[in-house]
Design brief:
Order of helices and strands: HHHHHH
Radius of gyration: 18 Å
Strand content: under 5%
Oligomer: single chain
Shape: elongated
Bound molecules: fe (ii) ion
Distance between the termini: 49 Å
Number of helices: 6
Length: 182
């Protein structure tokens, strides 16, 4: 018999704004991957890393945000059954997702460098937007997902389970020039 908590969490989906942003990034990755030469090579490497990463975020991270309004209204009990399995899965994979970001940011650096070299402003702008997307997730979205999970657990009298590892929180920084800064 299926666990009703799992059944309910499976019904949660990512907020539209988050899914649409991924969809737009995917579309631009497809377009950039069709470029010839070093830009196309670099874009295809970014796409190989980003496409499965986006899918994991849409399953493990973004659905937690569908509950934020309810949590902000203090409706913890009603939403707890749905968010706890999600938070457990996110916590278990947090470090792996963070490592994805480091690899993706490195690949974006190569794409940005190729775009600068070929004076392709459109691709350079896209690379910077994608970098900003990953940085925002790392600096805001992932910690918010962690906080939401811990908030629910504490409200239910459970110990907070998910903690960010300071060592894994090092820099995914990349300068606008395309140079990596760590
Ligand atoms: Fe993402
Ligand atoms: Fe990401």
């Amino acid at each position: 018999m299926m666990n009703p908590r799992v059944l309910r969490s499976e019904k949660l989906s990512a907020p539209d704004a988050m899914r649409l942003e991924h969809d737009e990034m995917r579309a631009q990755l497809v377009s950039a991957s069709m470029e010839a030469g070093p830009i196309g090579d670099a874009a295809r490497r970014v796409a190989r890393l980003c496409v499965p990463h986006f899918e994991q975020e849409e399953k493990l991270v973004f659905p937690i945000f569908e509950l934020l309004h309810s949590l902000a209204l203090g409706d913890v009990q009603r939403e707890a059954a749905a968010v706890l399995p999600l938070v457990s899965r996110f916590c278990a994979r947090h470090d792996r997702l963070h490592r994805h970001h480091k690899s993706i940011v490195s690949a974006i650096g190569a794409l940005l460098a190729a775009a600068h070299k070929e004076h392709n402003r459109e691709i350079a702008t896209f690379a910077q937007r994608l970098w900003l997307h990953e940085r925002t997730e790392d600096a805001v979205i992932y910690p918010m997902a962690t906080l939401a999970g811990n908030y629910v657990r504490e409200a239910l009298g459970l110990r907070p389970r998910c903690q960010e590892d300071r060592k894994t929180r090092r820099s995914c920084n990349i300068a606008a020039s395309g140079q990596m800064v760590n």
